[in-house]
Known about the structure:
By secondary structure, the chain is an alpha/beta fold.
Amino acid sequence: MANISSTYYPQSGKLIVLGAGESGVGTAILAKQKGFDVFVSDMGMIASHYKVQLDEEQIAYEEGTHTEERILLADLVVKSPGIPEHAPLVIALKAKHIPVIAEIEFAAQYTDAKLICITGSNGKSTTTMLTYEMLKHAGKHVGLAGNIGKSFALQVAREQFDVYVLEISSFMLDDMYQFRADIAVILNITADHLDRYDYKVENYVDSKFRMIQNQTKDDYFIYCLDDPQTATGLKRHHTAAMHLPFTQEQKVEFGAYLTSIKDIIINIPNSDTFTMRTEELSLTGKHNVYNNMASGLIAKVQELRNQAMKESMSSYVNIAHRLEQVACIGGVNYINDSKATNVNSVWYALESVSTPIVLMLGGVDKGNDYEMLRDLVKNKVRAIVCIGKDNTAIHAAFEDDTELIVNSSSMKDAVQLASHLAQKGDTVLLSPACASFDWFKNYEDRGDKFKAAVMEL
Length: 457
């Protein structure tokens, strides 16, 4: 059965899509296919390739404005996760009791596929891609969507996958109400995006735990037993789904754990035990042991053979912009971790690098607390090169913990400064802890410019 009752939301009438990015355009195409009168509205300018898609589908749209009187006539609104709850238009829609939902919520009504849903402050993309590649390698007919890949809604409209692996952000979860995950995964929860949650970490935790809402006893909930915020959330949020925890700190009967000799053990009911040495994993670092445990549990639930799991976990190559090896120049290693947009991601990056580090840090600060990085910076970081417009908080946080903190005027300037500060055997690590949109279009643009500047050295 579909993961939402098809009678919960209007099944016809006027459907407005707010935001004409990947998810918005996919939603519009699916909605038109299902018989809705569709209109797409974007406050910004719509990318040309999305306009071509909308024109080909003969879907009406506007850009550079929201025509409020037209939008407030909607029977159903699907909004971009980037539009916050406190936006005046969203407030006005809710005051008129017009349902405002996420693309994932809308599209889930129209598929019977199994939905594997992965969230967390860090490691979402790596775990999602590893899971997808593992299932694909094992011969499953699997789609990849959510925060990554093609629009879920577009795939529901045009593909017939048996299972989807969905990377889900808290912003998406905020607009999901009736959706049900067959397998829900919470990797970890650390303070992030608190500007969207009244600067209260418990609100952010509650958002992440929307992942398990509506689950039944036939579903699975996979989570990190070692994560303090997840432990706190578990006290407030309950599910009938089977719990499969993963941990590096204790032994569990069902779930995944690490032995004293660094073997990953995965056990689920009615299945044979999976064992793999951590040194055999293609992804290094403590955080990637957690990511592999989560993906391994999903694979066992999906009844993959142990050999197929091992083949994927030993050969997987990480996604771009996540601890991506760029080059070794003059004995200095350059790593692109542009996707590290919060402090916890940077902690994982620093933890996984064994050489002295020249750290490239900065951008749009989201209220970061750098305290958790202090010991790693003291012990591992030779110098910090700041990128972005305002790096006052970085200077204040680390002035006593590293010998040198310098500002840069561009990515090219930052890479050149880092190359001069680094010594043979060091690593230059771009791991910014911040959003990118002061100097760059997005974290991909930031990472691409870093790679280009490195190759010019």
